[in-house]
Amino acid sequence: MVAKLLGEMKVPFSSIGKRVLNQVADLKKVLAADYLRDTAMPSKELLRELGKEAEKIKSYDGQWNRLDSPEVLMRLYRKYGYLRDIELRAEPYRRGAGLSLRGFFCRSSVGDRNKFIIFVNTAHHPAAAAATLGHELGHYIYGSLVGEKSAMTAFMEGTFASHLKEEDELFADSLVALAAYSKDLIERSGALSRVKPGESEEFFASVRKAYALIAPRFNLDLINGQMAAAWRLRYITSMSHFIKLRSALYQAAGI
Fold it and tell me: In the chain, how long is the greatest CA-to-CA distance?
């Protein structure tokens, strides 16, 4: 299945070097997982609350996930009147953890107020920056509904499989999935939360639809562009994760 999916995006398996084999492993786990049975899926009630919050966020700006620059991020932030305790910082970061860091959230004092600080690494493609912002906003919403599990959490590349076992991380990813793919798309695509070997054509057809939907928004070209194979692999894993998760949200909670 991995080879076939990479073939769909014209990424030769032979072009994947040994140093990114962990990314291949992450893709394998994402494809193999049953997102309804093998994951720490939040309760139906919690997911429905998330669905309501997702609609609120999208109502502020129908294109809230078009993040082309730090300036766009800041304009977006200022529209969130009900998120006044968030401090958003978006800038390119290549030192230290470098591009393996997508972003993070932490609690910290800013002036005389306790702030929920979101950092988005804009050195990544705008599509990845959009997903990172959505993920960290998901943590904020989870904390407001359930309570924050820790004072800081980082979003790293190659961690989607590990997110499946942690309710707060899967909840945060769920906001991204809800923003990226509509209920109508999932209704047309059918159940995709589990992909059986030998019965994968429907899944691949949905990946094509998902790519056709996302790519124009962010000028994301995984097929004919100049992006390195390793990064195309990362984004294919991300897209597969979010489309399977979106299907699971619909099946589990009707959202």
Answer: 58
Lowest mean pLDDT among 53-62, 76-85, 109-118, 184-193: 76-85
For the chain, list the strands marked E by DSSP.
86-91, 101-110, 113-121, 152-156
110-132 confidence digits (pLDDT tens): 777 888 899 999 899 888 888 89
Note whether 76 and 67 are within 8 A (CB): yes
- Report how far residue 57's alpha carbon sits from residue 201's, in angstroms, rounded to the nearest whole number: 34
Give the start-to-end residue ranges of the domains of the chain: 2-253
State the helix-helix crossing angle for 201-218 and 229-253, rounded to 10 degrees. 110
> Which sign, positive or negative, has the C-alpha torsion 84, 167, 104, 237?
negative
Compute the distance between CA of residue 109 and CA of residue 117 in angstroms, rounded to an integer: 9
213 closest CA partner among 243, 234, 233 = 243
Other Cβ atoms within 10 Å of 36 Cβ, number? 16
